[in-house]
C-alpha cells in the first residue's frame, strides 16, 4: 500500500528557491515547542550561493495607517537564524527523507528550534475601517540568499511562509472553580451572600459554560437584577497599562427577582463565548490566523510560571463574572471565577510515513500569485 502525506510548498518569485513544510501549526508543550522541519529545493543556478533561514516573530502593536513621522508600530524578533546551504546534512525526519528522495540531490533539509518562552500566535480583531496587517503576534519562516544571515535579502530570491505557535488544552481538568463573596451595609444589619460555581475549570471552544449561582439575602436590601458574563482578558506585555477586559458573552435576567430580605435563590445560567457573537468588535483577541480563514476567540495562554511572560507576547485569560444589582442606593455585589478556554488536543490520526510513501507532485508548480500551495 502506498501512503500520501501533505506538505506545504512556496517558491520565491524568481523560482530559484522553493520551501516545503510538513505542517504550519507547531504545538507549544510548555516544556518545549515542536521543531519546524522542512526542505529547501535550490535551482542549479544558485548552487554557488549561500542560503540562510530564519524564524521571525513579528509583533505589531499599532495600526499601519498611524505610522507617520518615522514611527513604526512593528517589531521583528529573530528567534532562529542559520545557514542552510552549503552545510553538512543533519539528522532528518521521515517526512524530510521522503521529500529529499522525491525532489533529488538539490533538496536539503532544515530544522529550527523555537525557544519555549516565545509567545503564542494571537491576532487582535481589527475594526471595520482598519486596513493593513492586524495587530498581534505572528510567525513566519524566511529563506533567502546572501553573504551572511544579516544581509539584506532581495525579494526576488526570498521565500517566506506564515506558521503558527499554538497550545492545546491539558488532558486533565483542574480544581472546580468556586467562590463566595459577601457584602454588608452601613447602618443595616445582616449581609448579602453570593456563591458562584462552574461545573468545571477547562472548557473547549464552542462548549456551553454552566454557571451555578446561589444567593442568600440576609440583609434588608432587595436584589433587583442578575447579570452574568464571560470576560476575555488581554495583557499586552510590552506596555505597563496594556491590560484590558472585554465581555464576549453576557446574560441579564430578572427571573427569580426581586429577592426580598430573608429570601434565597439558586439557579443555573448558561453562556457560550463565540467569535460569531463578536464579529464587529475591535480589539477582541483571536487565535493566530493563516491566510484570511475564519478563526475563533483566542485560547487561554498557559505559562510554566508567571515570570515567563515574553515582552513580545499577548497573554490571554478568561473569567466568569456575576453581578447583583441592588438599586441606586444598595449598589452592586460581584464575584469572579477564572477558567481555561482552549482547543482539545487532536487525536493521532496521522499515518506513519512508510518507506513507500509518496507526495502527490501533480500540483508542485512555481506560482508567484498564490503564496501558499497545499499538496495532498
How would you sum up this structure, described in words?
Helix content is 4%, strand content 43%. The protein contains two helices and 21 strands. Strands 3, 5, 6, 8, 9, 10 and 18 form a seven-stranded mixed β-sheet that branches. A five-stranded antiparallel β-sheet has the order 7-4-2-1-21, covered by helices on one side. A hairpin with a 5-residue loop joins strand 1 (7-11) and strand 2 (17-21). The model is unreliable at 349-357 and 360-376 (pLDDT under 50). Belongs to the arrestin family. Residues 188-346 form the Arrestin C-terminal-like domain. This is Arrestin homolog. Keywords: Sensory transduction.
**SSE order, one letter for each helix or strand:** EEEEEEHEEEEEEEEEEEEEHEE
Question: CATH fold name of the largest domain, please?
Answer: Immunoglobulin-like
Low-confidence runs of at least 5 consecutive residues: 349-357, 360-376
Binned, the helix content reads under 10%
Extended strand count? 21
Rounded to the nearest angstrom, the distance between the terminal CA atoms is 17 Å
Biggest pleated sheet: 7 strands, mixed
Tell me the domain tally. Answer: 2
Q: From the structure provided, what is the oligomeric state, counting identical versus distinct chains?
A: single chain
General shape: elongated
The residue-averaged pLDDT reads: 86
Number of helices, counting only DSSP H or I runs of 4 residues or more: 2
The secondary-structure class comes to mainly beta
> Strand share of the residues?
35-45%
Keywords: Sensory transduction
Family: Belongs to the arrestin family.
Domain Arrestin C-terminal-like: 188-346
Protein name: Arrestin homolog
Amino acid at each position: 500500500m502506498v501512503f500520501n502525506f501533505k506538505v506545504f510548498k512556496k517558491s520565491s518569485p524568481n523560482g530559484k528557491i522553493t520551501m516545503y513544510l510538513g505542517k504550519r501549526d507547531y504545538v507549544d508543550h510548555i516544556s518545549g515547542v515542536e521543531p519546524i522541519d522542512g526542505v529547501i529545493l535550490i535551482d542549479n543556478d544558485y548552487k554557488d550561493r549561500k542560503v540562510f533561514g530564519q524564524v521571525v516573530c513579528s509583533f505589531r502593536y499599532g495600526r499601519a495607517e498611524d505610522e507617520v513621522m518615522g514611527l513604526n508600530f512593528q517589531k521583528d524578533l529573530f528567534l532562529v537564524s542559520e545557514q542552510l546551504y552549503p552545510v553538512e546534512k543533519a539528522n532528518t525526519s521521515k517526512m524530510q527523507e521522503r521529500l529529499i528522495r522525491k525532489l533529488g540531490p538539490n533538496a536539503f533539509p532544515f530544522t529550527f528550534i523555537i525557544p519555549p518562552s516565545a509567545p503564542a500566535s494571537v491576532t487582535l480583531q481589527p475594526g471595520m475601517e482598519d486596513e493593513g496587517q492586524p495587530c498581534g503576534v505572528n510567525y513566519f519562516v524566511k529563506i533567502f540568499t546572501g553573504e551572511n544571515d544579516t544581509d539584506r535579502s532581495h525579494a526576488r530570491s526570498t521565500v517566506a511562509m506564515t506558521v503558527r505557535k499554538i497550545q492545546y488544552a491539558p488532558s486533565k481538568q483542574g480544581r472546580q472553580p468556586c467562590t463566595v463573596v459577601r457584602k454588608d451595609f452601613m447602618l443595616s444589619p445582616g449581609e448579602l451572600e453570593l456563591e458562584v460555581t462552574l461545573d468545571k475549570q477547562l472548557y473547549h471552544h464552542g462548549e456551553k459554560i454552566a454557571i451555578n449561582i446561589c444567593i442568600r439575602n440576609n440583609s434588608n436590601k432587595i436584589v433587583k437584577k442578575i447579570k452574568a458574563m464571560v470576560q476575555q482578558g488581554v495583557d499586552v506585555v510590552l506596555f505597563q497599562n496594556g491590560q484590558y477586559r472585554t465581555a464576549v458573552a453576557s446574560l441579564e435576567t430578572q427571573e427569580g427577582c426581586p429577592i426580598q430580605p430573608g429570601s434565597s435563590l439558586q439557579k443555573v445560567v448558561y453562556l457560550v463565548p463565540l467569535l460569531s457573537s463578536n464579529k464587529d468588535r475591535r480589539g477582541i483577541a483571536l487565535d493566530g490566523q493563516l491566510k484570511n480563514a475564519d478563526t475563533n476567540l483566542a485560547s487561554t495562554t498557559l505559562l510554566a510560571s508567571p515570570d515567563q511572560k515574553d515582552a513580545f507576547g499577548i497573554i490571554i485569560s478568561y473569567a466568569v463574572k456575576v453581578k447583583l444589582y441592588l438599586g441606586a442606593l444598595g449598589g452592586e455585589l460581584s464575584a469572579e471565577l477564572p477558567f481555561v478556554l482552549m482547543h482539545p488536543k487532536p487525536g493521532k490520526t496521522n499515518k506513519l510515513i512508510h518507506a513507500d510513501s509518496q507526495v502527490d507532485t501533480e500540483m508542485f508548480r512555481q506560482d508567484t500569485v498564490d503564496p501558499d500551495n497545499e499538496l495532498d
